[in-house]
Write a structure and sequence with these properties.
mainly alpha; 92 residues
């Protein structure tokens, strides 16, 4: 359901598709960052998980940078992809 903690509602955010996509990608980057901190602080950190989290965060940051030059269609595509990824990450 849109507008719940599981599915944030970015429809009221100004700035169009590019701003919506940027907000969603930023939230994904934040999820990866929080997970990295938690894993690094674990009594026995999982090095493979840390590397996977770093790779995921780097990919999201690269896509976020791409938004600066994305046309509205590309921004909408990125928003859809990252909204789905955010749902998956929060469910894991």
């Amino acid at each position: 359901m849109v507008g719940t903690p599981e599915e944030p509602d970015f429809s009221g955010v100004g700035g169009g598709e590019d701003q919506q996509a940027d907000d969603i990608v930023r939230e994904v980057v934040g999820w990866y960052s929080a997970q990295l901190v938690a894993e690094r602080r674990a009594p026995v950190p999982d090095d493979e998980r840390i590397e996977a989290l770093k790779a995921g965060r780097e990919a999201a940051l690269a896509d976020q940078a791409q938004l600066a030059t994305a046309d509205p269609e590309e921004a909408a595509r990125i928003a859809v992809v990252y909204a789905a990824r955010l749902r998956e990450l929060k469910e894991s």
